[in-house]
Amino acid sequence: MKKHLILLAGLLLAFTPPSREPVSKEMAAAAQTFVNSLDAEQRKLAVFPFDSEERFDWHYIPRKRNGLPLKQMNPQQQKAAMALLKTTLSEQGYEKVTSIIDLENVLRVVENRPPNDTYRDPENYSFSVFGDVSNKTPWGWRIDGHHLSLHFSSLTGKVIGMTPTFLGSNPGIVRADVPQKGRQILKQEEALALALVNSLNSDQLARALISETCPNDIVTTHTRKASIEKMEGISFPQLTSSQQKTFLSLLETYLNNYHVTLKNQQMDKLKKVGLDKLVFAWAGDRQVGFGPGKGQYYRIQGPTLLIEYDNSQNNANHVHSVVRDLTNDFGEDMLAEHYKTQHK
Known about the structure:
Helices cover 38% and strands 18% of the residues. It has eleven helices and 13 strands. It holds the Pfam family DUF3500.
């Protein structure tokens, strides 16, 4: 366990401010460095054709994964893999990701597992590269593991896909007597949502509350294509100016995990469709009340975006959250347009 704590601490401290290169160029250079660092056998595990179905096979539970896990990399290769991750995230996002990985050490202690246990394993996070980074054809990459799944796609020098993005936290708040005690990785995701739902008057809550029962997981789970049967909740224009400010702060909490260029891409897309098209929906027992330690589910939904948050398992101390682009998960919408144009 000590080895893993040292590894994660080193990765956290290794964060460096992004250069002035475009994020797509940084990402490509980092991916190429990572691939070049691998031997032939490692490449067989890590590199897939871009059109492989493997690109869409993701999950957030502990399971056997394809790709090249951190445990099968030497320290230099691990450094290259994490450098690739850094190119796509903000400092805040990178810290959340490495903290999520480190929670595997907490679960080993809480569940009385041995130090070499492979079910709760901070080195069982796999990196995969799809396609040839060195040419102008589409390519992408992924990191996938327990409570963590990030996907990025690139085409003609531009990042065209940055979702699905899954971040989870078990425990939501670390209460065990371990070095991480008191840590709450997804704190703002809970605090801002609670502030918003508790600010609603009775008429507003009647619109926002879609169920008195909190689901035990995000609705879309790990599906290839995210879909919610219907858009429910209170719309952005139906909020007061103060509530709208809280709503936007909550939305930005998720987008701020990305590199600023990618955040702005997504925000510009939302503004183009119209922020007034966004709705906020909540599920939970109003008789029990809405607060920490009580089952809670919410989502932000619009024509192009879906954010889900669920904290119901383990006595409401086990968080799942996801960002989905309803038109462009895995970069598929922009890829379809590209292929259509190329065909012409």
